[in-house]
Amino acid sequence: MQYWWKILGVALLFYAFIGGLLMPVPDLPILEQSIRNLYYHVPMWFGMIFLLMASMIGSIRYLSSNNMHRDLEASGFATVAMLYGIGGLITGMIWAQNTWGTPWTNDPKLNSAAIGMLMYMAYLVLRGSIEDPEKKARISAVYNIFCFPVFLVLIFVLPRLTDSLHPGNGGNPGFNSYDLDNRLRLVFYPAVIGWSLIGFWIANLYVRYKKIEFIKHNA
Amino acid sequence: MKIFINIWLQMQQHTSMMADAQSHKFDAVVYVIAVIFALIAGFLFYIDFKLRKLEK
């Protein structure tokens, strides 16, 4: 019973890989066949945000319970979220190269995403720089709780206040209004669920491994 | 004129064969990606089972 969501995640991502590359897509100007990246780039960012939210919840639960397992959950979710973030950046750069002609532009969304990623890299460095486990857990939990809302502002609010190449930002129409037709939705929504479930599964494995290590270390 | 038509037809045939070959090549790449993903998923299940044993 505890495997159903893992099997569902694998099945949905399998469908997203095959369907995403082979199923028909609308013929859009400039985007053309690169629109298929919508099934990989965007769901990875969705997955990353869900994982970062879980990480923040882990930090809040740690501060309210002082249970070290909650701290391990917070750091595990943030680590896997960073992996997703790197995947999202790479797929985004490939997409930008094919549509905007350059992998990185001075786009506010790109710069905000880079700053946000650096903030979470700093969280992981901060954890590595403190030896005392209790102190490490408490300081990094407080940092993590502050990080998440700032990250959301950087990703979702600031790019909307200024000109941006991204859809749905800086006065641009969002994907939903023009480009996201039913053929894309058929793969896009399962891809978002699949990428998120697989992200949670990888984080779950990482956290369980860390917990076993922690119990062994403190036995 | 007939020669030109023949050349044109041959070219058309060649182009469609090339497109067909490219399409098969693309399908093959997709299935290779799917197999790699299946292997990764299998590896994740393997780690999951191993961890479950260690947790007992």
Overview of the molecule:
The complex is a heterodimer of chains A (219) and B (56). Helix content of chain A is 74%, strand content 0%. Chain A has 6 helices and no strands. Chain A has helices at residues 4-22, 41-65, 68-99, 108-129, 133-161, 182-217. In chain A, helix 3 (68-99) runs parallel beside helix 5 (133-161) and helix 4 (108-129) runs antiparallel to helix 5. Chain A is globular. Helices cover 96% and strands 0% of the residues of chain B. Chain B has one helix spanning 2-55. The interface between A and B is medium-sized, with 15 and 16 residues.
The whole-number mean of residue pLDDT values of chain A reads: 89
Which class do the helix and strand fractions of chain B yield? mainly alpha
Poorly predicted sequence stretches spanning 5 or more consecutive residues of chain B: none
Bin the helical content of chain B: over 70%
Kindly provide the radius of gyration of chain B, computed on alpha-carbon positions and rounded to a whole number of angstroms. 24 Å
Query: Termini of chain B, distance in Å?
Result: 83 Å
The average pLDDT of chain B is: 80
Radius of gyration from the alpha-carbon trace of chain A, in angstroms: 19 Å
Beta-strand residue percentage of chain A: under 5%
Low-confidence stretches of chain A: none
Q: What order do the SSEs of chain B take from the amino end to the carboxyl end, as H and E?
A: H
Shape descriptor of chain B reads rod-shaped
Number of helices of chain B: 1
SSE pattern of chain A: HHHHHH
Number of strands of chain B: 0
Say how many strands of chain A there are: 0
Which pair of chains has the greatest number of interface residues, and how are they split between the two chains? A-B, 15 and 16 residues
